[in-house]
Amino acid sequence: MNEVKKFFADAFRHLGNNRPVPEIEVRFYPYAGLHHTIRVRSGRVYVRLSDICKGAPPDVLRALAFVLVARLLGKRIPDVHKRVYQDYSVTSEVMRSSDLARRRRGRKLISSAQGEAYNLDRMFTKLNRRYFDGRLAKATLTWSQRRTRNILGHHDRVYDTITISKTLDSLDVPEWFVEFILYHEMLHIKHPARLINGRRYYHTSAFRQDERRFPHFSDAQKWLERVARQRKVPRARAA
Ligand SMILES: [Zn+2]
Questions:
Q1: 168 near 142, Cβ under 8 Å?
Q2: pTM over 0.90
Q3: Average pLDDT, the chain
Q4: What is the pLDDT of residue 183?
């Protein structure tokens, strides 16, 4: 937490036009979503960060400090911080309902790898053998609680969990397409995000190259477009 406080002090130094850095208090708070507050009372700054961010990497927390301090001071958010935080918020807001449910019920209770149509554990084992020589560490696999619209899969490094949208747990969806979405998320385990100039890259060229090894790759692209059309969203994707 002291480290997080330091990020806020840094942000005040950078954005505060030589004003002295105020006393800062930072706390995590169980907001219902990825929501944060910053306010000043009697010259002291009180920050409450969504506890979803507890496990966030330092560069994300630093970016968030700049975002909030800029908001407080009515300053423009520096682009680099804005991007880092946005990238993070996209992935962590994704399938938030299942994250929240997981925390509400305790993680252990939700082991819903077995769906109505497909079993994610079995699929993982098969893909692991076929494309990773069986060497990929087993993640926790779960179907999302809700039918998420535009995000079909998500890998959460902090919880070592892959969540696949319930939308795909249907015999109307070909097995190879579900496999492709899971394969994409498994590649996130193999290829951790790379940090370049403060920006995280999740889909590196090595990642994309591996992704194309999937035999149904181009069919899968067509299905992604098709799913997007059905859902009336710009484009379905795997995060
Ligand atoms: Zn991805």
A1: no
A2: no
A3: 85
A4: 98
Tell me what pLDDT residue 233 has. Answer: 47
Cα(6) to ligand 1 centroid in Å equals 31
Q: Does domain 2-93 have CATH number 3.30.2010?
A: yes
Q: What percent of the chain has pLDDT over 90?
A: 49
Residue 203 Cα to ligand 1 midpoint, Å, equals: 6
User: Ligand 1 centroid vs 215 CA: distance in angstroms?
Assistant: 18
Which DSSP string corresponds to the chain? -HHHHHHHHHHHHHHTTTPPPPEEEEEEE--SSS--EEEEETTEEEEEEEGGGGG--HHHHHHHHHHHHHHHHTPPPPHHHHHHHHHHHHHHHTTHHHHHHHHHH-GGG----B-SS-BHHHHHHHHHHHHHTT-SPPPEEEE-SS--SSEEEEEETTTTEEEE-GGG-STTS-HHHHHHHHHHHHHHHHS--EEETTEEESS-HHHHHHHTTSTTHHHHHHHHHHHHHHHTSS--EE-
Q: Which CATH architecture has domain 111-238?
A: 2-Layer Sandwich (3.30)
Query: Under a CB-based contact definition with an 8 Å cutoff, are residues 77 and 71 in contact?
Result: yes
Rg over CA atoms, the chain: 20
Give the per-residue pLDDT at 156.
85
CA 202 to ligand 1 centroid distance, Å: 6
Query: What residues does CATH 3.30.2010.10 cover in the chain?
Result: 111-238
